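Researcher: Let's try something more involved. This one mixes different molecule types, so please make sure each is placed in the same coordinate frame as the others.
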Amino acid sequence: MVLLRSLFILQVLVRMVLTYNFSNCNFASITDIYCNIIFHDLTGDLKGAKFAKFEQIEDCESKPACLLKIENYTLNPIPGCPSLPEKIFAWRTRAALIGHCPGYPETERNDGTQEMAQEVQNICLNQTSQILRLWYSFMQSPE
Amino acid sequence: MMALGRAFAIVFCLIQAVSGESGNAQDGDLEDAEPDDHSFWCHSQLEVDGSQHLLTCAFNDSDINTTNLEFQICGALLRVKCLTLNKLQDIYFIKTSEFLLIGSSNICVKLGQKNLTCKNMAINTIVKAEAPSDLKVVHRKEANDFLVTFNAPHLKKKYLKKVKHDVAYRPARGGSNWTHVSLFHTRTTIPQRKLQPKAVYEIKVRSIPHNDYFKGFWSEWSPSSTFETPEPKNQGGWDPVLPSVTILSLFSVFLLVILAHVLWKKRIKPVVWPSLPDHKKTLEQLCKKPKTNLNVSFNPESFLDCQIHEVKGIEARDEVESFLPNDLPPQPEELEKQGHRATVHSANRSSEISVSPPETFRRESPLICLARNLSTCNAPPLLSSRSPDYRDGDRNRPPVYQDLLPNSGNTNGPVPQPLPLQPGILIPVSQRQPISTSSVLNQEEAYVTMSSFYQNK
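Model: All components are placed in one shared frame. Result:
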C-alpha cells in the first residue's frame, strides 16, 4: 500500500513537471481539422464580436510551441470562464490532439475552483479570441 | 431388439440431420442458424436543423426482420460515450449535435445486448449532400441558349460549403439517355444547337461534397423541371432585322455620297475650304460704280468738248511771283496781296478742281478737290525754286512749276516743255492755239497742274 501510494504521487509529480512534446504531431491533419471545424466553432463562439476589440497578447514561434499554448489556453479553466473546457471547440481541440499527437495523454479535466465559478462573458470572449490568435500563429509558423 | 433400436435411432438422427432446411433453426437456437445478413449502410447529413446533424442507417437487405434490432454509435462523440439510433420502419436515424466530426465512430447492430455486426465509420467521410432546389430554365433568344439556375442549401452551411453539382437533361419523350453537366456554381447554360428543335426536355440536378476533409455521397435528385425548345428556323432564312438594318445603312451612305458630290462646289466647299479673297474684285465691290456718262479723267483730250471761260482777268505773272518755293502753303495774308484768282473749270462739274489765287484763299473756299483719290489736294500748287528755268528777276518767262511736273528731280524721260499758264484757263495739250500771254500762262498752269496730278496718280 505504501508502495502504491508512492507510485501514485510520483506519477502526479511527473505529470506536473513534464509537459507533452508536440513535435511529433501530424500537423497537416491538425491543420485540416482546424480549418474545417475548429475555426468555425471559434468564430461562432465569438458571435460576430470584433476581433480587434480584444487584446491579443500571446504569440508563438513554432507549431509545437503554438500547440502547447493552445492546449494550455483551451483545456484549462480560468477565473471568470470556468466553462471554457466544456465548449465544443475545446472538445474538438482535445480530440484533434489525441488523434494526431502520438502519446498525447487524455488528461483529466481540471475542475474549476470556487473562485472560478462565476462566468463573465467578456472574459470568455477574450480568452476565445486569444485562442483564435494562437491558431493563426500556428498556421503561419514553421514546423 | 437392442440392436434394432439402435439402428432406428441412428437412421432417425441421420434423416433429421439431412432432411432439415438449411438455416432452419429451432426457436432460440441461433447457433445452428445461418446468420442473417445484417450488413448495413449509414450516411450523415450536417447541419440539417441548425447545429444538429443527422445520421441515418439501414440494412442492405430490405427483407430482413428488424424486430428487436437496433443501431448504436459509440466514440467520436462530444460529451457522451454512445448514442442509440431511433427506428422509423426500416430506417434508423439520430439527430444530434454531439458528433465530434473528428475521428472514427463504431456503429453496431445490436440485438439486445449483443452486437450482431459493427462497422467503424468516420462521420465526416459519409456525408450525404442535401438536394438542390428551385430548379429553373429560361430561354434566352438573343444568346440562343437556355439558362439553368437552382439553389444549393450548402452555401448557407458552416462546415461543408463546397459541393459539386450534376445537371442532367434529356427529351421527355423517347426515354433516351441523360446528358450530364458538372459544375461548381449554381447556374449554367445549355446551347440551343445541342437540343432538338421543338421538343420538351426534362432536367434535374444533384450535389456531392467536394472537400478535402468532408467526403461522402450524392444527394437525392432535385424535383424535375421541363422546358420546350422553339421551332426551327427556315432553311436558308435569316433574321430579317439584321439584313434590313444593313441595307438601310448602305442606302443611307450611298445617298450621302451622292448629295455630297452634288452639293460640293456650291455649298460644302465654300464652307469647308473658303477661297482667298480676290483683291481686285473686293476693290470693285467696295468702290461704287461710277455713274454712266461720268467722265472722270484728267486727260486734257477728254475736255475737248468743255467750254472753259475765264472768270476774271488776272495777271499771271503777279500771281506766279506771289507763290514762294516752300513746302508750306502760302499764308492767307500773303496770298491776299496778290489779288489773283484762278479757277479751272472742267467740263464735268462733279470732279471740279479750283485753283484759287492767294486772294481767294481767304475769300473763296480753299482748294477743293472733289475727287477721292487725290492725295495732293490739300496743298496748293507751289513754285519750286529748283527749277533750272527759273531765275530771279527773269519775269519774262512764265513760271514753271517744277514740283508739279511728274519728272521733277527725276530725268528718266523727256520733260515736256511747260506751256505758259493762264489762271482760270485749262487748255488741252493738243490744242496749241495762239492766245494771250496771260491766258497762255493760265492755260499752261492748269495744264501742268492737271497733267502732273495725272502722272502722280
